[in-house]
């Protein structure tokens, strides 16, 4: 059952900016990653979902409600973290959290204390003096503190967080997922998308490039293997066997992207004297750029 429906929306700002004929849905209990570079249209799409702007054409709905006609009801029932949070600088962190709880018509502060402890947040300081990371933690608390919110819409949620807090956020998403929450999360942090999401919707230049299962994306990734040979003629001969190998003439290092045919690669390398061998899995970012980057069909 689809909880979030985006159907053929277009918002054209001119000069190729905006989103064009974008359609995808988020099912109940699903975590869907919304991926794309800065300026691709992620925030424009999310702002339309929250009713802050109306599409030129197409429709958006949450729980069957039109996002523009039922903005107030949707905003009260959805946990939302904007990409740019509009803080009231005269407030301190706790005052702002209470202000948001009041706007949501919550009784008390819900899970705020638990979340502040999880993210090691002291919210007593003035907002205008807080770092980007501290403000982001305030935003996360505000988005997740209502225990009755079953739908989360998050725009670049880990922006400004250090690696430790990014991991805490992943833990939070996995916990919410176990409880059956429906989550749409835009990000360019492919590791957190890989760890948390069921599917990914990929947008580039305002157009949807693909919607894929995360497991399928993982299976399609290649290994990036860097082999160092004892002598440069060995490296040159080995590189000649792999048309897409990266090799500097006269050097001893060859870098090759290898898919499922890893056995043949290893056997070929075994014909030479190898002095070093490094393997890493192609990142999802590299995978997306390969299939959906400038050289890919739109």
Automatic annotation (TrEMBL):
The keyword Nucleotide-binding applies. The keyword Zinc-finger does not apply. InterPro entries: AAA+_ATPase (IPR003593), ABC_transporter-like_ATP-bd (IPR003439), ABC_transporter-like_CS (IPR017871), ABC_transporter_ATP-binding (IPR050763), P-loop_NTPase (IPR027417). GO terms for molecular function: ATP binding; ATP hydrolysis activity. SUPFAM superfamilies: P-loop containing nucleoside triphosphate hydrolases. Keywords: ATP-binding, Nucleotide-binding, Transport. PROSITE patterns: ABC_TRANSPORTER_1 (PS00211), ABC_TRANSPORTER_2 (PS50893). It holds the Pfam family ABC_tran. Residues 4-230 form the ABC transporter domain. Belongs to the ABC transporter superfamily. This is ABC-2 type transport system ATP-binding protein. It comes from Faecalicatena orotica.
